[in-house]
Write a structure and sequence with these properties.
binds alpha-L-arabinofuranose, alpha/beta
């Protein structure tokens, strides 16, 4: 049975440009993200580009990743950047943050040079999360100098040259701390704000015109943290302590198991994921109390589903590794639509995490490598990057659940760039298709293009090493005439990219 729905596009109405940084990613030194995930080593029998898994590099660059956050996460608060430079065979091996969970050690084979090289290979900007718990402002100041000082100008710049990269890396985005309300030092908001101020003040001598600092914000709806950090920072001049972005993290969690869930659990997770709207709005509202001009933006630099681990190919060896299916893909589409429709307040977002972890785009191990349904969502949404957002409104079935805002079962966003219009839809209804009538105000929407559909007959299906294309999109030509009804299958994601006639 197909339900009727309508999508109203107001071609003249827009809240602004969709920052490409919303299509950002996160890669932490944890479990199998790097070792045997992204990184296989230069001497590996597995095809690689300067140590990075070739199949992954080639796939990742196709979706135009804008920014990649590194090295954590919690790991960042335990990381000494000097461990990761110089000849690889001389780098120290450490017990690292996750040692007590999985018994692995950190080889430091991937450090600053390797990570920036990976970013260059895939066309992403690096975003470094700096340790603000177990090191000093001077030590991080030196990391910034090491990365960004002009060629040959200082001792650290010369050291960078000796390590193979004379030209500056020009790392623009620097997070000061990670989850400082938790594993980043268990600080109070005031304590953390003073630390941020201390770090940012010290960084004055190394910050270039484009260096952007990101302050640790709230865990989801815990906006009291945001308020108290903002309040404490507002006592100091923004010229001395610039803040480009406020980091917030929101994991929508789980319901049931990643591969076994009931219909109720499907909807439970949709409600939880849809809460991202409230998380963004509530944090922005609190920031507005201190920053009414909106000089500081929001960076949702960790988001995604968080199911129990153990369903990935390593069968539990890789910490937090889990499989993804259409439920996760629909969550990804819903979340990206939410960000597109809040592009006036969200400048950056980073899905957690890239490979062999939570809500991953890839699963890999040994010679095996597979793209998950999440990957396909990012591929289908990539043309939104840098587009002018177009206001949309869905008229569709809405579900209610105690403790949550009403859930629209059709999620949508639209944008326009270089004469192309992109419309992305997610059908949150697990069992029923929706026939979506497109209605335009403020202009017409006609033209030829491509309609891509990501679905699977059973939404529990996932891609595996044995069957890597079980869930894969199908693309077909489409012509919009101005009187169009789009069929959006149950539990699916659809993108339409039209060359405006
Ligand atoms: O993504 C896994 C962990 O989740 C990160 O290390 C931390 O920042 C968050 O709690």
């Amino acid at each position: 049975m197909s339900k009727r729905a309508e999508l109203l596009l107001d071609m003249k109405k827009s809240i602004g440009t969709i920052n490409p940084l919303i299509y950002g990613h996160f890669s932490e030194h944890i479990g199998g993200v790097f070792y045997d995930g992204l990184w296989v080593g230069e001497d590996s029998r597995i095809d690689n580009i300067r140590g990075f898994r070739k199949s992954l590099v080639e796939s990742f660059r196709k979706i135009h990743p804008s920014v990649l956050r590194w090295p954590g996460g919690c790991f960042a608060e335990n990381y000494d950047w000097r461990d990761g430079i110089g000849p690889r065979d001389k780098r120290p091996e450490r017990l690292y943050f996750w040692y007590s969970w999985d018994g692995r050690t950190e080889s430091n084979a991937v450090g600053t040079h390797e990570f920036v090289d990976f970013c260059d290979m895939v066309g992403a900007q690096p975003y470094f999360a700096a340790n603000a718990t177990s090191t000093s402002p001077q030590h991080i100041r030196n990391w910034i100098e090491y990365c960004n000082a002009p060629e040959g100008r200082t001792t650290l710049a010369r050291e960078r040259g000796e390590n193979g990269h004379p030209a500056p890396f020009n790392v623009q985005y620097w997070g000061i701390g990670n989850e400082n309300w938790g594993s980043g030092g268990q600080m109070t908001p005031e304590m953390y704000a003073r630390e941020y101020i201390r770090y940012a003040t010290v960084f004055r001598s190394v910050r270039g015109a484009d260096t952007r600092f990101i302050i640790c914000g709230a865990n989801g709806m815990k906006v009291n943290w945001t308020r108290r950090v903002m309040e404490e920072c507002s006592r100091t001049s923004p010229l001395v302590v610039p803040i480009w972005g406020m980091s917030i993290h929101y994991y929508c969690g789980t319901a049931g198991k990643p591969l076994e869930f009931t219909e109720d659990q499907w909807y439970q997770l949709m409600f939880q994921a849809d809460r991202m709207r409230m998380v963004v709005d509530a944090n922005r509202a609190v920031m507005d109390e201190f920053d009414p001009e909106r000089q500081i933006t929001l960076a949702v630099d960790e988001w995604g589903c968080w199911h129990e681990d153990g369903t990935g190919p390593s069968k539990g060896y890789n910490l937090f590794e889990q499989q993804s299916n259409m439920r996760d893909a629909v969550v990804a589409a819903l979340t990206l639509n939410t960000f597109n429709n809040r592009c006036d307040v969200v400048a950056m977002a980073n899905v957690a995490q890239l490979c062999n972890n939570l809500h991953s785009l890839y699963l890999a191990g040994g010679e095996n490598f597979v793209e998950t349904p999440n990957y396909h969502v990012f591929d289908m949404f990539k043309t939104h990057q840098g587009g002018r957002q177009i206001a949309v409104r869905a008229c569709c079935e809405t579900l209610e659940k105690e403790g949550f805002s009403p859930l629209e079962t059709l999620s949508a966003s639209a944008s326009e760039k270089d004469g192309k219009v992109t419309i992305t839809l997610a059908n949150l209804n697990m069992t029923d298709a929706q026939s979506v009538k497109l209605t335009c105000a403020g202009g017409e929407l006609r033209g030829k293009g491509v309609c891509t559909v990501l679905r699977s007959a059973d939404p529990h299906t996932c891609n595996t090493f044995e069957n890597p294309t079980a869930v894969t999109p199908t693309a077909s030509e489409i012509t919009l005439t101005g009187d169009d009804v789009i069929d959006v299958p149950a539990a699916s994601v659809v993108s339409i990219v039209i060359d405006k006639a």
